[in-house]
Automatic annotation (TrEMBL):
Its EC number is 3.2.2.n1. Keywords: Cytokinin biosynthesis, Hydrolase. SUPFAM superfamilies: MCP/YpsA-like. This is Cytokinin riboside 5'-monophosphate phosphoribohydrolase. InterPro entries: LOG, LOG_fam. Belongs to the LOG family. It catalyses: N(6)-(dimethylallyl)adenosine 5'-phosphate + H2O = N(6)-dimethylallyladenine + D-ribose 5-phosphate; 9-ribosyl-trans-zeatin 5'-phosphate + H2O = trans-zeatin + D-ribose 5-phosphate. The keyword Hydrolase applies. The keyword Calcium does not apply.
């Protein structure tokens, strides 16, 4: 009897393209010009890589710098902004698509729906709230999209130290902390985020 069993060679992980990245960052410039320089580099590089930008829709501060850089480089820029902020003339009217919503909750939900992954650049309270919410959503299983911090110049290093301290108490699971992608530059962060995307879409054993 002839054994007709087909032995399949190991298949490399399927590459999952990142079509859009949601970026959270400050609506002010901060004191260090390096923050605006970073936002310019990120916006430009995302456009050159063909990765669309999803952001909070503002025209001021680092948000505006990021959007302008991506647009100048020919990238797609999707802004999501509550109606009340448009009434205060905070909206960027030159983006590829401006999505208007009613509340901050809707804003974050729409951004999460439009993006394949999330990243935080230098920012304050709003940036922290946004990145922690999507991270907690991932930990709870509400989505499988990776989350990361762009730790350029060590901006997020104090926060990471605090998170490690919390993890040491047993109140933040080590795998959850390890799941957070962290890199000092955009190429490194994109690589870490895309690796997590591939893990999410990797076929089950024997498939």
């Amino acid at each position: 009897m002839v054994d007709r069993t087909v032995v399949r060679p190991p298949q490399p992980p399927r590459k999952v393209p990142m079509r859009r990245l949601a970026v959270f960052l400050a609506s002010s410039h901060g004191h260090d010009p390096a923050y605006a320089e970073l936002a310019t580099v990120v916006g430009t590089d995302l456009a050159r890589r063909g990765i669309g930008l999803v952001y909070g829709g503002g025209r001021t501060g680092l948000m505006g710098v990021l959007a302008d850089a991506a647009l100048k480089a020919g990238g797609e820029v999707v802004g999501v902004i509550p109606r009340s902020m448009i009434e205060r003339e905070w909206a960027h009217e030159g983006v590829t698509e401006l999505v208007v919503c009613d509340t901050m909750h809707e804003r974050k939900a729409i951004m999460a729906d439009r993006a394949d992954a999330f990243a935080a650049l230098p920012g304050g309270l709003g940036t922290l709230e946004e990145i922690f919410e999507v991270w907690s959503w991932r930990q709870l299983g509400f989505h499988a999209k990776p989350v990361g911090l762009l730790d350029a110049g060590g901006f997020w290093t104090p926060l990471l130290a605090a998170l490690r301290s919390i993890s040491a108490t047993g109140l933040l699971a080590a795998p959850t902390l390890d799941d957070l992608a962290v890199a000092p530059d955009l190429p490194g962060l994109l690589e870490a985020l895309e690796e997590r995307l591939r893990d999410t879409h990797r076929p089950a054993h024997g498939a």
